[in-house]
Structures are given as structure tokens and as C-alpha cells.
Amino acid sequence: HVQLVESGGGSVQAGGSLRLSCAGTGIHLSSAFCVGWFRQVPGKEREGVASIRPGATTTAYASSVRGRFSISLDTAKNTVFLQMNSLKPEDTAVYYCVRVLIGISWSGGYWGQGTQVTVS
Asked: Coil, strand or helix: which one is 96?
């Protein structure tokens, strides 16, 4: 049974920081997977925020978060992190982590339940 559980969300003032975690069970970080963070605001489409390939450790970021957010992973703990600094009100959203086999679209991956981030 595959499960991804996000944590670390909350409320923070603009300029503050949060660190999101995504712990996985039943699915392990490996070079066969790509790992990402997405976010969604009610009424809007889900937006890709950051991604990382465990095998190659290459990363990618949305232009809106580049330089402020950082994705990383701890393979021993089977956990992916999203460090968010210099938060802005427009970063307010539900954040989701996802793991997907390379070559498969994100929508076909394993998704967590989401964690709320509110920046005021």
C-alpha cells in the first residue's frame, strides 16, 4: 500500500519560512522516480512548484519560487522536503507532494493528501 504524507504546513507572516516534509511508505526513492511538489488554490489549476530526480539529483523550479524554495530528499528516511523562504501571500495554497515513475505524467503518480500553507 503506497502512502505519501505531507507535514509542516501552517500559517506564517510574509517573509517567513516553512519546511514541508513528505514521508513515503510502500514506495521508495530511487532513480526510477521523479519527485515533485505542487500547489493549488481553490478555483485554480494545480501548479508545479519544484521537482527532483533522486538518481540524477537534478532539480527544477517554477519561476515564481526560484531562489526562494529548495527541494531536497533524504533517501534513508524516504522523505522529500521543500524549504520555503521569503514567503509571500501569493504562496498561500494547499501543497501536495507526488512521486511518479519517470516517463509517466504527474497525474499518474502517487499523491499525498496535501498540507495547507497560509502566508499573511
From this structure: strand
Q: Rounded to an integer, what distance in angstroms lies between the CA atom of residue 42 and that of residue 118?
A: 13
The residues near 116 (Cβ < 8 Å, ≥ 6 apart) are 9, 10, 93, 94, 95
Q: Count other C-beta atoms under 10 Å from residue 40's C-beta.
A: 14
Spatial separation of the C-alpha atoms in residues 16 and 82, rounded to whole Å: 14
3-class state of residue 59 by DSSP: strand
- pLDDT by residue for the chain (120 residues), tens only, comes to 889 999 999 999 999 999 999 999 888 887 788 999 999 999 999 999 999 987 767 899 999 999 999 999 998 899 999 999 999 999 999 999 999 988 889 998 999 999 999 999
Nearest residue to 38 (alpha-carbon basis) of 4, 67, 89, 76: 4
